[in-house]
Amino acid sequence: MSETTEINRYSKVFTQDQTQPGAQAMLYGIGLTDADFNKAQVGIASMGYDGNTCNMHLNDLAKIVKEGVWKNDMVGLTFNTIGVSDGMSNGTPGMRYSLVSRDVIADSIETICGGQYYDAVIALPGCDKNMPGSIMAMGRLNRPAIMVYGGSIHSGNYKGKSLNIVSAFEALGEKLAGKLSEEDYQGIIRHTCPGAGACGGMYTANTMASAIEALGMSLPYSSSYPALSEHKKQECLDAGRAIRVLLEQNILPSQIMTERAFHNAIVTVTVLGGSTNAVLHLIAMAKSVGITLTLEYFQQISNSTPVLADLKPSGEYLMEDVHEIGGVPAILKYLLKEGLIYGDCLTVTGKTLAENVADAIDLDFTQQRVILPVSRPLKATGHLQMLYGNLAEKGSVAKISGKEGERFEGPARVFDGEQSLIAGIQSGRVHQGDVVVIRQVGPKGAPGMPEMLKPTSAIIGAGLGKSVALITDGRFSGGTHGFVVGHITPEAWDGGNIALVHDNDIITIDAVNNILQLNITDEQLAVRRAAWTQLPPPVKGGVLYKYHKQVSDASEGCVTDAYTD
After folding, report:
1. 395-413 pLDDT per residue, tens
2. Catalytic residue at 152?
3. pTM (2 d.p.)
């Protein structure tokens, strides 16, 4: 049997089985030749669509990937799946579909690759949920696979000030507070996004791309090559040869996505000061290959891992600056030298992580300030803290950069949904020292667990960022900063104690002892519990209703395919 046939494991059911005349006829119909029937078929999943800067260039990149696949004597077949723009949907009812899109992406890639019997898959994601969705599908299929990140956007500029997507949301808060003219507000909005690529800070897209590169599921430098660079185009071309190596050696996602590899991914997220969403997504990605990650495990890594990257939203720099200092491989090389990650993990190059980064640039701490050395970190321990208490009996996730302090106590200011908070800021209902509570925005309660970027940005823009804390059963954008706690579980719709909070209750947030506590007596809590009734389902049909019925809680990754006996 030839090498070409050896790597044609799944599609040969269609191309070589004489009892499948329909498949053969239709493959002739798309232009395949007899010789092509002996080649591996590679599904190329593009999340490209015109309506989002993060994704607008992906179909063009997919063409380059397809060229690379065919050049390496395989059949490249492109298909599309969906995306939802977080930047556009944030602050609107559309944001309920964002996290839902992650599972729709996973389902659709699994469906077409399973149904069409593709031998391998290369995915091209752009916006936040595209990446974990792609990896979840790869884990379920467990066929050779590579993720090619679409890359990040170039920074915008207005009146000499560097801009990124969060600038637009914070400008709204400044405008609401009377600190920004309409002219300058419009100027910022118009100049924030100068072209294609995902949001440029260490927000969720770049967080997940970096984590997935550290995990071993994308080629070196994939997460830090800019979207419109020649480097990104070459990566797309190189993916064809790389997927052939995986097919020849039968290297599967389950062999790459091991417990040690997930350790590397979590350490990388922590070092880079990445998004709280990484907790949710990494748990879901691990489940796809039968690995259980717990909030306690994230906390263990956070306790022993410093924050070294001075990246937005809390810091100064963008992903384009990471590219300039040697990209993510330079950072991984340094982490390996410091003993923070494992170098023996297999990757999609067919080589180990240590082999991949051996020739990367050595970080020069005298010449660059993007990444600091372990000897003088931005924060000695991780920024992602898992808090528990009577407000989060199954846990919650806080993002504590250190700039906002580590403890906050104040009276609750309760809002059912983010729109009521925006009205509360405008009316002066939110004051310095308050703990803002946004509830009924969890996985089931919204449904879809929308991000609270508009509320947090409005708080910061209104000048309350350093004097107000915010807790929610929803999520946060990777662009969120300030004293915030999300992913509160159980959520309000399920009867979590966040549903029982009243205005002016005193709430304690302690990121040293990892406590999130409603300071009322057990007797008071029991009285409120007895009076509580569950709200009706927030939707009655469609994909949001299916999600509402199927989704697991945030501590379990919000997956929709969880097996129960």
Report:
1. 999 998 777 788 999 999 9
2. no
3. 0.95
